[in-house]
Write a structure and sequence with these properties.
Order of helices and strands: HEEEEH
Mean pLDDT: 88
Oligomer: single chain
Protein name: DDE-type integrase/transposase/recombinase
InterPro entries: Integrase_cat-core, RNaseH-like_sf, RNaseH_sf, Transposase_IS3/IS150/IS904
Number of strands: 4
Number of helices: 2
Domain Integrase catalytic: 48-101
GO molecular function: nucleic acid binding
Strand content: 25-35%
Low-confidence stretches: none
Length: 101
């Protein structure tokens, strides 16, 4: 195992520079979107399967390219009911994952 200070010293000797990306600023909505109805109203208790689904999209760099996995979960069973991978984070990705669910 090698410590970070030794790595730093070796990099300095070799003339290598480490650049890390800055932090992304999280944005929080300043006003509530009244055009998008809040059906759950933070009440996540569900009585049966397929009443409430939740989903998400993230991004992963693999083989030098960005890939976007999307999943849909059943809130009652807590199981994945649909999953899709894409090379673009577009509306087609969302439609396809919902069709698979």
């Amino acid at each position: 195992m090698i410590g970070r200070f030794k790595v730093s010293r070796l990099m300095e000797e070799l003339g290598l520079i480490c650049e890390q990306p800055g932090r992304h600023a999280c944005k929080q909505a300043t006003v509530e979107r009244i055009d998008i109805p809040n059906h759950l109203n933070r009440e996540f208790e569900v009585g049966a399967p397929n009443q409430v689904w939740c989903g998400g999209i993230t991004y992963v760099c693999a083989q030098g390219r960005w890939h976007y996995p999307a999943v849909v979960l059943d809130q009652f069973t807590r199981r994945v009911v649909g999953r899709v991978f894409s090379t673009r984070p577009d509306a087609d990705l969302v439609v396809r994952v919902l069709e698979r669910a």
